[in-house]
Specification:
Helix content: 40-55%
Mean pLDDT: 88
Number of strands: 9
Largest sheet: 9 strands, parallel
Order of helices and strands: HHHHHHHEHHEHEHEHEHEHEHEHEH
Structural class: alpha/beta
Distance between the termini: 106 Å
Number of helices: 17
Length: 449
């Protein structure tokens, strides 16, 4: 069989293979920027240019909303605050800033505002890492001007003391004693002065401070946790001048009676303070008397927390005396003190005459059966108390029966913590049934309302 005849074009291809583009060898030079994508749109080029030059030429409000959103999505989170603080209000941008800096972020504690969270935590970090006489205050003051309108609460978990002057050399061995390592040295190391910043925060409502150093490890010294006299004086003046402050918490600061009384003396005529927290310190009866005076004079205070201190019968009695005439306090926490039967009895007598207190904690105070009888009388007459915590007191079986009888006609108590009080299971069961019934009635009335 004869091969098929080729036309003229096919003959030319066989004669000259280079004429066939399919058989030609193609060489393409490597270009790292070469792409099959289409040319970017002009608007995308403009957005990219605005983002890259935002620090030198911030342009945002002049853009259309859809273009503004694209710029905010692409902006870097490390831009200077002096540029972004007054210009950027978008919560999405501040959310990215927070998450790029802190691993745990919860806006529930910041009024669901990412911008507020960023500025409050940023200021807290600056204060917590400030070293007196070593760190420049200018960084804090500059940031303060940009942050003042967004800060409503400061929770300072540590304060660094000033660095010791070791130019005179190390102490000799005979100058060092075991007692000195346990009780600290005579050299006081002062901390950050809050006066210059508090007055520049017009919206500050809560201030929580712990004087101490976190994670000090092998560098531990008692002086790192000392609340000095100068610290106390400066803080008292700062708090007094901050008339819009509503909550003051000074926890785990090693505060003693003298310093606590100085602080309270500056709060006697404070116009807006509602919460005072001096828990986990070293205050005693003298501070108890000072708190009693505060309750007598101040007509705004709603909560006092003196948990884990050394208040005994005298201090508790002073507080009880003022509690009879106070018409604003709603919460009183005396947990982990040593008020004893005498202090407990005076507190119960005050509870018979107050109609505003809703929550009281007397747990771990060395109370006995005699106080149980006084408390039973309170339960049968007081129609305002909703939460009572009296755990870890030796009320005994007889005390439990008395409380059970006193609670029979009570219709308002929602919580009654009687753990580790040595009452009988029968009394505890009966008391809990009454509490359960009160809760159900309260829930039903709330739904009806």
């Amino acid at each position: 069989m004869e091969p098929p005849l080729l036309d003229e074009n096919e003959q030319n291809l066989f004669a000259n293979p280079a004429a066939d583009p399919r058989k030609m060898r193609r060489i393409i030079a490597e270009d790292p920027e070469w792409s099959l994508a289409t040319v970017p749109r002009l608007i995308d080029i403009c957005v990219k240019h605005i983002v890259n030059n935002f620090a030198e030429n911030p342009l945002l409000d002049e853009l259309k909303p859809k273009h503004k959103d694209k710029v905010l999505e692409a902006l870097a989170t490390d831009l200077p605050l002096k540029i972004t603080a007054p210009l950027v209000s978008d919560e999405g941008y501040w959310k990215r800033c927070c998450k790029s800096r802190w691993s745990v972020c919860d806006t529930d504690q910041y009024g669901d505002s990412w911008k507020r969270m960023f500025f409050e935590r940023n200021m807290e970090d600056l204060i917590e890492n400030f070293v007196p006489e070593s760190t420049e205050l200018s960084e804090i003051t500059e940031t303060l001007e940009l942050s003042k309108d967004f800060i409503k609460r400061l929770r300072i978990k540590q304060l660094l003391p000033q660095i010791k002057d070791v130019s005179s050399g190390l102490p000799q061995e005979d100058e060092i004693s075991d007692q000195g390592s346990d009780t600290g040295t005579d050299d006081s190391l002062d901390h950050f002065d809050f006066g210059p910043i508090i007055n520049k925060l017009p919206n500050l409502a809560e201030l929580s401070i712990t004087y101490g150093v976190r994670n000090c490890g092998m560098n531990f010294e008692w002086s790192l946790f000392e609340f000095t006299q100068k610290d106390c004086s400066l803080l008292a003046k700062a708090v007094k001048s901050c008339t819009h402050l509503q909550v003051l918490r000074l926890q785990r600061c090693q505060i003693e009676d003298e310093k606590a009384r100085l602080i309270i003396s500056h709060l006697l005529d404070h116009p807006n303070l509602k919460v005072l927290d001096l828990s986990h310190n070293r205050i005693g009866d003298k501070t108890g008397r000072a708190v009693g005076k505060l309750l007598s004079v101040n007509k705004i205070l709603e909560e006092v927390n003196l948990c884990d201190n050394n208040i005994q019968a005298e201090g508790a009695s002073a507080i009880a005396f003022s509690l009879k005439r106070n018409s604003t306090l709603k919460t009183l926490n005396l947990k982990l003190n040593r008020i004893g039967d005498e202090g407990g009895r005076n507190i119960c007598q005050a509870l018979m005459q107050t109609s505003t207190l809703l929550h009281i904690d007397l747990s771990s105070n060395g109370l006995g059966e005699h106080v149980a009888a006084n408390l039973a009388e309170v339960l049968s007459h007081n129609q305002s108390l909703e939460h009572i915590i009296i755990a870890c007191n030796k009320l005994g079986v007889a005390g439990g029966r008395v409380l059970q009888e006193g609670l029979e006609n009570n219709k308002v108590l929602q919580t009654f913590d009687l753990r580790l009080t040595e009452i009988s299971q029968q009394s505890e069961h009966s008391i809990m049934n009454v509490i359960k019934s009160n809760k159900e009635k309260s829930s039903g009335s709330a739904i009806t309302a």
